[in-house]
Amino acid sequence: MEIVSSQKQTVFQLRLIYGKLHTCLLVEIIVNKSGLLVLTDLNAEAQPCKTFNPFEHNGERILARRKGSQRKRKKQKSVDVHSEKTREHFTDVHFEKPRVYFPETWLWDISILPPSGVLNEQHTLPDTITEWVGKAVCVNPEKGLGISPRATITTFTPFFLDLTLPPTIKRGEILPVKISVFNYLEQALPVKVVLEISLDYEIIEESESQLPLGHKIACIPPQDKVVHIVKIRSRVLGAVNITVDAFVDELYPEVCGPEYVISKRDILIKPIKVEAEGFPREKTWTKYICSNDINENADFLEIWKVEPPPLIVEDSARGWVTAVGDLLGPTLENLGSLVKMPYGCGEQNMLNFAPNIFILQYLDASNQTTPAIAKKAIDYMQKGYQRELRYRHDDGSFSAFGNSDASGSTWLTAFVLKSFAQARQYVQIDTDNLYMSLGWLKLHQMKNGCFQSVGKVFHKGMKGGIDGSGSPVPLTAYVLISLLEAGEVTSSRAVMKAAFCLDADTSKDPYTLALKAYSLSLSDSPKAEQAVQNLINVAEETTDSMHWELPAGSGKSQAVAVETAGYAVLSMMTLDATKFELQARKIVKWISSQRNGQGGFISTQYAVSQLLQGIRYIALLGLFSGCFLFRIMSCILFMDVLAILTALPKYLLIA
Fold first, then answer.
1. Angle, nearest 10°, between helix axes 473-485 and 493-503?
2. How far apart are CA 74 and CA 67, in angstroms?
3. How many domains does the chain have?
4. 405 & 434 share domain
């Protein structure tokens, strides 16, 4: 065996192979500048070979540097750590696993404890560098409820990088990728950062940089960080992964840290959503078709011509064709947009609370409720109920900010009373509190039977068509509806006085007429049928639809027209469902044509709630069996959608 070395100091391992016997001899030799020649017959003791890593010291991996070379080395060109030339200098680079898992929350699990009361589980920590804080909540039929003290666990590494990215960007937009590299070691580190090249984006070249595209180098002081910015321009739509690699650079050209530098590396992969440039536009064609109407020539199929407008953004065109045998089919496809966690002030909270009730009522009526949807909606209602109590005044009224407001709001209190009364079938509601709210509303009934508007409403969309009305009649009709749905008997003095106020009104406004018709139908008023007929008289009716045009210059949007139609259906179904079946069909067909691409309506959430309640009555009475909803939707951002939608007439004929 012969070993020749001209180094000042060498640490090496000798391995001898004799036949099939492997023995190892570890020799540490310190030599002078002269060469070294070793000759031996190797009378050595045989023992199992141990792996020796010349790049490891005291358990830490190091990049071995020759003594003095750090200060005497001249500036070198940047070398790619993945190249063969680099591996000749450093053959044992430690490649870390990329970090890709960054959840916002973690460990939302339900577990059953064994009789011992101790449960041990193994989990892998997410890749986020952070402190996790949590606690356990236990329920026992005998011991009751128990909450553990808060526990924490910190995921940390002394060397890591982080990316600062926005949630979304537009295609073609230049994005400055902010790369932060953290060094919590007690020594400085020479670090190279590489943003990997991808076909999904273009790295913008920096004129003053001598490094390759996407490369940055820096000496990071101990207990400090360095921030690099690399600019990119996205080329494709959808989720684009950005991969950044940071590692200790043994070829760093300047003095940085000690002679032996610990090897560290971190690879991070984070996605960013790239959206098409321009402004989204969509067009939806919807038709509600009943087989009986087709057979009786009471309705007909239609052919819609889809023409793309000019100046469409490339690759942004999309189109859908759906046929659903359920009136709310398209809406239920996007149920997550209606079943929401209530939040915000007293008004915002109720806007998210109410749809949960009507969605569950419809699903129950049509036998489509699933345990998952029911659990989610009920859970949200319970939390929304508790939250709304924060905005309750001592007198039983409600306002947007509770006791911070001078008084409760007539409109919000009526809305809360109506919603809580209907939520009683799903969650526990304090009946005494409901009666206090009901009594507070009665106190604000004037001598003529109309209800006085008290307090403020900040969210105008909540009031629907009532907003901007100088007459007390719409508010009176709505308060009367709330009282009756909360259990007020129809023979009570408050109900009779409110009906008198409504009877005295001579307004021809469709929205006011719709509210009057529904409230009088609920109160069993002898004037109810005439009120419904007055509403029908001002309707725009065709062979297959019925709706109401709002007066010109009224300032009311199409959303109020949808709300008006919803109240019309409610009044007809409450008064005499069989008698007004034909009109109800026509109204619902028109309402269906007002859907947007997500199955919802261009309307306030309150108007949607009223619509869902009307449809609940229809589902209970079974008026729409044998019908299905047919819909075409195209969405563009100013490419030619003709190629995508040329087959549509064929589907129309099949339908």
1. 150
2. 15
3. 4
4. yes
> Which amino acid, one-letter code, is at 440?
W
Q: Which of 526, 418, 424 is nearest to 480 (CA)?
A: 418
Helix axes 581-592, 558-576, angle to 10 degrees: 160
Confidence of residue 598 (pLDDT cuts 50, 70, 90): low
Q: What's CA 152's distance to the chain center, in Å?
A: 27
User: Is-contact 390 347, C-beta < 8 A?
Assistant: no
Which runs of E-coded beta strand occur in 461-552? 540-541, 546-547
Domain extent at residue 289? 278-322+629-655
- Which phi and psi (to 5°) does residue 51 adopt? -75, 125
Strands 189-195 and 151-155: unpaired
Which of 143, 242, 256, 237 lies closest to 191 in space, CA to CA? 256
386 and 486 belong to one structural domain: yes
- Distance, in Å, from the CA atom of 649 to the CA atom of 646, rounded to the nearest integer, reads 7
**Cα angle 213, 219, 223; round to 5:** 125
Residues 477-529: pLDDT tens digits?
A: 999 999 998 999 999 999 999 999 999 888 888 989 999 999 999 999 999 99
pLDDT per residue over 563-589, tens digit each?
A: 888 889 889 988 998 899 888 888 888
> What CA–CA distances, in Å, run from 59 to 52, 56, 419, 564?
12, 6, 65, 75
Based on the domain organization, do 493 and 612 belong to the same domain? yes
Kindly report the pTM of this predicted structure. Answer: 0.57
Q: Rounded CA gap, 254 and 238, in Å?
A: 41
Minimum mean pLDDT among 219-223, 269-273, 557-561: which range? 557-561
